[in-house]
Write a structure and sequence with these properties.
Blueprint lengths: L15 H13 L4 H27 L2 E4 L2 E4 L1 H20 L30
Antiparallel strand pairs: 1-2
Amino acid sequence: MTITPETSDMPVGLQWSGRRLWQSVTADFELSEHETSLLLQACRTVDLLDQLQARMDADGPIVDSPQGLKAHPAAGELRQQRIVLARLVAALGLPTGVVDDDDKKQQRRSARGVYTANVGAP
């Protein structure tokens, strides 16, 4: 079954950035069930990134600790979550750049093709 914006309600619990990502992707693409799951995880990751960034913005990039000054603990988690987001977006196979209006509701190629073995290749 193909999930479209008309048949897929926005998941509960998403914050502003997550809702925005959900709307922008579901408005332009038809997603399979597993792609919808990936999108949900990407939306949650975007929301978590916002929360971590807000905490770091409030506290500053350097914090006091019993051992002295050190990098904010959220800095490392921000880096890790950005990697997760990049991998989720890559797994979704979302194109980058401008898309023609004629190409509404695009179906993307699976990223699985990238990982197939070249049997008999020199």
